[in-house]
Amino acid sequence: MQHPVFAANWKMNHGPTAARAFVTAFLERFAPRQDRTVILFPPALSMAVVGWSLRDRQDIGLGVQNISTEDKGAFTGENSAPMARDAGARYALVGHSERRHVFGESDEETAKKCAAAVRSQLTPMLCVGELLAEREAGTTETVVLRQLRAGQLSHDDVSTMAIAYEPVWAIGTGRTATPQDAAAVHATIRAALVALIGDRGKDVPILYGGSVNAGNARSLLDAPGVNGLLVGGASLEPEGWTTICSA
Ligand code: PGA
Questions:
Q1: What is the pTM of this model?
Q2: For a designed S-S bond to 181, which of 2, 25, 93, 177 qualifies (C-beta 3.0 to 4.6 A apart)?
Q3: Is there a catalytic annotation at residue 109?
Q4: 232 lines ligand 1 (CB under 6 A)
């Protein structure tokens, strides 16, 4: 397994001015490291300025938070995978719980977005995770595996695929999964990946997300099968994000 991945999902925070200030402050604190991958997912309107600010730091990746299922055309307000790629993105978040549960995106749309990302040489980071009611009903595994299979991963895609397990009840709530909870679901996802795509499924990084912060990052990363962290709220401020990326 490759080195750990630290991904910052800024959601709808940090417009171009704040994004530039963030990157300047972060780069001052975080020297390039060969033993980890750091990725920033700014809002689409801030991608250009973040890409420009990272021009001398090839060690830090840039990703887009959402893409259209289509590559171009009359889709007012949408951003496509080819445009994100052109703006410097190398990764695309797909199926984030806010896309699924706030914007009502289906498994089918999620699959199309995965395909759109792969078509444009973007690495899809497919997010999966159960609602609190689903966990309490004992259906976590069923839900996560359905979302994973719906991503329609193929052997060809897999060299450019990452998974993020984000229990919905842990996102933005301050209620983090225990390392044991995370490890159990990560093991399920790993087994499913291997069943779906064979040995190549062993190399797909599986990140944990949901109320990760500077205090709990290390213990979550130490959990068996956790290959990285996808961080929302605690990635918004350069000092805290530096601490997390140094965990
Ligand atoms: P959070 O968000 O770290 O604020 O819980 C994580 C995410 O939604 O990716």
A1: 0.96
A2: 177
A3: no
A4: yes
